[in-house]
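Q: Convert this sequence to structure tokens.
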Amino acid sequence: MKSIIKISVATLWLLGAPISMAETSLGFGVSNIGDDGLSIMSVAAEASGKLNDNFGWSLTGAVGGSDSQDGISLDLNHYLAAKVRAGMSTEDGFLFVTAGYGSADIDASGFGVSASDSIDGLIYGLGLEAFFDESNWGIGAEFNKGRGDLAGVEQFVITARYRF
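A:
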């Protein structure tokens, strides 16, 4: 958790001027994080920006949600990710591949035992942001896979977005 916050702050600090001048958007929606039959649906928020027509950044967070399997319950306390994006812009959208670092804090309980753990690792995926014609409102969708501690984890995020 602390490492992703440090990475996010350092990235924003290094890119401060370009980000402040970039096209940015803020989205709220849902995130589904799954692994080996588990599916945790949670509330999600994402801030993203384009540095130019082909490169951008995003910060994603998700909180809450739970699922159980074989008598074990998993609760997602939070998920955070900082990513860079590369892709192709259209007049009202951005189709991209993305890669970065993610971290999740989870609680597990079952059979009278409970435990908490933080897992983290590299994430990569692809996505799309599309804004309605002549409007600052749009939608975003992204699919990510994990590596490291997040190996086997898949995430799908869909958001309603507002562009600044």
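The radius of gyration is 16 Å.
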